[in-house]
Amino acid sequence: QGVERFADAGVSDARRATATLHYGAALLHAGRLEEAEPVLKEALPALAEAFGPRSTQVAEARGVLGNVYAASGRWAEAQPLIASVRETTCAAQGPEHLTCLMSGGNEGVILVQLGRAEEAAPKLAAARDAFEGLMGPASPGVHVMNYYLAHALLGMGDGAGAAALVDMLDAALLTAGSPG
Fold this sequence. Notes:
This protein is mainly α. The chain has helices at 2-8, 13-29, 33-51, 56-71, 75-93, 98-113, 117-135, 140-155, 159-168, 171-177. The protein is elongated and about 60 Å long.
């Protein structure tokens, strides 16, 4: 009945799809992951129909769904979605835009979780360097990226490089920049 009421009220398909995306994101942030997933899967084709398959709206929905998967420990499912988000946002907004950098950093975190340290390290370092350039060394984003970069370096056998990064971490800034 609720969806029909939207249609009867003259709400556009684009607006309905966007509202569905935002509802799915709200469920994610409320920790209701099992409820968020089907809502976001419903939003994706509707957003693609309304805005185009390579739109930033579809990328946003993929990113939220990727975060649902990551929060559920489903790293292998999250990775291609987050990679797609990075590609779309970087193409649309440029490689130095904050959303592009965040997407690259998110992809790096996922790659670390998948044991793909060599792929993760350059993405994490680029995101860290950009966050530091945009917001300074006290940015929580710098500390989060250094934390995961240290994990990647350990995975690559570079204990000394990892130790140097760990020594620079600030627990309060790391906590401020970490989800959950």
